[in-house]
Amino acid sequence: TNGIVTQTTNNIEVSTVAPGLLTLNGEGLAAAEVVQVSGGGTQTVQQVYTTNSSNAIVANPIAIGTGGASTYLVLFGTGIGPGGTALTSVTINGVATTVVYAGSAGADTGLDQVNVLLPAKLVGSGNVNVQLTVEGLNANPVQVTIQ
User: Residue 88 CB: number of other CB atoms within 10 A?
Assistant: First the structure.
């Protein structure tokens, strides 16, 4: 009620999370980064997709574990943070991965990130589907390319 109109029945869903992943083209290409961490701790960051001189989106294939490095996929989205790392899972091409962080991406309010250790068994997979699940709720699936 607002003093003039009274609404007698209205159904709403209240949830602690509502996971959604950001895409580059609205059709599933992941807005994500890859972080390679060398054995010595040096980090190299690469975008998963970029644009070429014609502004077309092109894949930067992910090279997993080259030279003994650990490879992490960093996904960006929203509605993820409250679930936390313990209640978040990611499968890539049906392969379960290790989620090492799920929460706020930092200074940008409402922007969350999920850091996933990529297993060596995905090497050579090509274009793959990534499925994020938080507290049992699936986010929109996204795609990356694995070398």
Answer: 23
